[in-house]
Here is the input.
Amino acid sequence: MSPRAPSNPLVFAHYMLIMQPSANDYTTDINLAKEVGISAFAVNYGGWNVDWALHSTHLATFYTQAAAQNFHLFLSFDLTSVTDPSMIVNITNTYASHPAQLKLPDGKILLSTFQTDPPAWNWQSDVLDKLTAPVIFIPGTLSNDASALFSDSNPGDGTFPWIHPSASSSEEYALDIALASQRSQSSSADKKWMAPLAPWFFKRLGPGMNWANAQDDSIFIDRWTSLLQLKPDFIELVT
Here is the structure.
């Protein structure tokens, strides 16, 4: 199999479902995303102090409003709080055929996770084999080992390696180059690369949990330019 020649990437934006807009009205955010060419929201399912019943209701509202605006969503499970693989299976199956569910050109849905170490379960037997729709699974990772991320031993169909909070702009750029190089190898031809792009990352949760990690002011533009040259399969805005 010859190395793949990627086309222009789809662009997504990570959306924290736990942070509710006024009156649970997502249309303003949806329309802003559409105006700047964002293809879909990666809906972060989970978070801190989650009321799961209410969270599920918010997700249903989000999908309904996205469909009404002809916009698309896909699920990104926050494994810092989602600890039951059956939750991932049930929710993914519930929304797999929803009109707002993002479907890639090959008809598969996209499924992802956010920033975590590998969970206790087996992704293939405990989750992927139980899904009712064909899926492209791109889990989040904290690893910066390009070779390992594209290896067959890495679960899923690709990688979403976000190292921004602990990396300088030069370290992040070096990983991008390594990932692009590894993906060009024939052994990695079937693996997808979802590149994260974050100009600023912060928390504001209370005493002792408020912090910000900002890179150089120009990183957003510079990294956009770099990624558009390297052409990952997808770009996800993470803030």
